[in-house]
């Protein structure tokens, strides 16, 4: 990897919000390809951050700090990229299902997906199943719908949400991801979701797989 | 939190024995155990200082030479790369402090002065402040003059006098560690209220000043069940503005509480110190 891009990678991985914009600018000045800075410098660094989080080597605040640092770099990079390039991986609609107000995990997942190069439409918490469907209809380029449920009592709501998505005519164009503390792979299979992941880092990784990036 | 490690004090019988026998190995080991709690730059972005308190508690006639020996032994085990570790030179005699601090290679703090007068009728601040004026040394200052003032107003009046002295000798507020004094809760249930109110007023006036305390006084009179009281005091006092304490740095319960309290009171951006303390094995 190019030395300047390596510096961007290291700064994002270490969550150096002050250093990242400088490193990105230096890489640009050195003639590095902006797309390479984004993909090999920043998104790859967040992949590494996700892997370390999964391995228990780093903790939630460090993941947040790294994502924040990356955003600072993206601000510098954006004028040098074709429009939409920072979200080149595709569009994801995310939300916590009806009846459930938990958003910490959902927000972490959204953040990691954004850092992986996706455009995120965050519907927030307590989202009716109809809203998920409407939003996909309004955004026909949506690649993934990610639904979260944190309580055993809102698992039925998650089931209904996935059922509504599965019954929609656009179903073959999207992938449905589910997650949340009580959710398991078996439950995801049972309700007809395409994927389940157990943490934010794995969710971002899985989304890339599903979107084919 | 700036920890002042309390384990090398001649008032502790085993330490007194080691001092009397000039047991260098004992002193060094006690120093090393405390140094292990110092924030390491491998883990912490900006390591805060840790001071190893050195108190001889011997006959005044041999106190200076005893401190010299102790200081040399303690400094000999501080690794060169640990720049944030130094000594707190501790004596009830300001004159001894003013002499003994010169034996230290590293810049530390003097423990302590107050507005009390010594046997020759000299105010303690007038002995130590001029001695450290042209150095970067810090100094602990107790808010007492003749006995312990019993109201916030009276303690703050002593504080004003100390600050006037500091100004006179050119000691910047950030070099001062004010000890608002902790009395035993067993005999004065307003002990913490008094302490915390002083902390708030001092910090409001001088945000850059340090506040410290020998907090275990709070639990005097409760033998065998002092710990919960000490810990509650620590957390509450930190919220009131105390940013230093004279404690046992090898006590993980207390050290862990300090890092946790810093996190909860928004003094630990992004929880980085809490995580660093975990990685360094301090929690």
From TrEMBL, chain A:
BP GO annotations: homocysteine metabolic process; tetrahydrofolate metabolic process
Assigned keywords, A-Z: Cobalt, Metal-binding
Molecular functions (GO terms): cobalamin binding; metal ion binding; methionine synthase activity
Domain of life (superkingdom): Bacteria
SUPFAM superfamilies per the UniProt record, alphabetical: Cobalamin (vitamin B12)-binding domain (SSF52242), Methionine synthase domain (SSF47644)
GO cellular component: cytosol
Pfam families from the UniProt entry: B12-binding, B12-binding_2
Residues in B12-binding N-terminal domain copies: 1-89
UniProt xrefs under InterPro entries: Cbl-bd_cap, Cobalamin-bd, Cobalamin-bd_sf, Met_Synthase/Corrinoid, Meth_synthase_dom
CDD domains (alphabetical): corrinoid_protein_B12-BD
Record-annotated B12-binding domain positions: 89-213
Family of this protein: Belongs to the methylamine corrinoid protein family.
Designated name of the protein: Corrinoid protein
Organism: Candidatus Avoscillospira avistercoris
Top-level taxonomy: Bacteria, Bacillati, Bacillota, Clostridia, Eubacteriales
């Amino acid at each position: 990897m190019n030395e300047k891009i390596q510096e961007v990678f290291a700064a994002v991985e270490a969550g150096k919000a002050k250093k990242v914009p400088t490193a990105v600018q230096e890489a640009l000045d050195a003639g590095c390809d902006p797309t390479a800075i984004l993909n090999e410098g920043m998104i790859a660094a967040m992949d590494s951050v996700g892997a370390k989080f999964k391995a228990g080597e780093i903790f939630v605040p460090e993941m947040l700090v790294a994502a924040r640092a990356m955003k600072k770099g993206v601000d510098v990079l954006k004028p040098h990229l074709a429009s939409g390039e920072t979200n080149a991986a595709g569009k994801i609609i995310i939300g916590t299902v009806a009846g459930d107000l938990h958003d910490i995990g959902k927000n972490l997942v959204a953040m990691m997906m954004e850092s992986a190069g996706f455009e995120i439409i965050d519907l927030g918490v307590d989202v009716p199943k109809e809203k998920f469907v409407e939003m996909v209809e309004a955004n026909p380029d949506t690649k993934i719908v990610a639904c979260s449920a944190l309580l055993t009592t809102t698992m039925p709501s998650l089931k209904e949400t996935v059922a509504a998505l599965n019954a929609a005519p656009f179903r073959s164009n999207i992938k449905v991801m589910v997650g949340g503390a009580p959710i398991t792979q078996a439950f995801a299979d049972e309700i007809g979701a395409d994927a389940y992941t157990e943490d934010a880092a794995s969710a971002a990784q899985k989304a890339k797989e599903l979107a084919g990036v | 939190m700036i920890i002042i490690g309390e384990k090398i004090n001649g008032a502790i019988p085993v330490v007194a024995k080691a001092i009397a026998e000039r047991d260098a190995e004992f002193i060094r080991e006690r120093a090393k155990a405390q140094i292990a709690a110092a924030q390491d730059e491998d883990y912490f972005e900006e390591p805060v200082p840790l001071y190893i308190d050195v108190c001889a508690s011997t006959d005044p006639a041999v106190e200076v030479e005893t401190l010299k020996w102790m200081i040399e032994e303690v400094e000999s085990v501080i690794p060169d790369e640990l720049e944030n570790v130094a000594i707190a030179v501790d004596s009830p005699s300001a004159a001894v402090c003013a002499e003994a601090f010169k034996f230290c290679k590293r810049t530390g703090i003097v423990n302590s002065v107050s507005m009390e007068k010594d046997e020759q009728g000299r105010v303690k601040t007038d002995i130590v402040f001029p001695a450290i004026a042209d150095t970067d040394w810090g100094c602990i200052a107790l808010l007492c003059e003749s006995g312990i003032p019993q109201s916030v107003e009276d303690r703050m009046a002593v504080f004003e006098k100390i600050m006037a002295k500091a100004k006179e000798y050119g000691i910047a507020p950030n070099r001062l560690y004010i000890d608002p004094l902790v009395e035993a809760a067993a005999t004065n249930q307003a002990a913490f209220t008094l302490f915390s109110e002083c902390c708030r007023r001092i910090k409001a006036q001088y945000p850059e000043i340090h506040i410290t305390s020998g907090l275990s006084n709070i639990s005097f009179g409760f033998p065998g069940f002092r710990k919960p009281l000490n810990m509650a005091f620590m957390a509450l006092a930190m919220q009131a503005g105390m940013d230093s304490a004279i404690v046992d740095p090898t006590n993980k319960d207390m050290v862990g509480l300090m890092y946790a309290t810093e996190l909860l009171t928004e003094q630990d951006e992004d929880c980085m110190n809490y995580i660093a303390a975990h990685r360094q094995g301090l929690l």
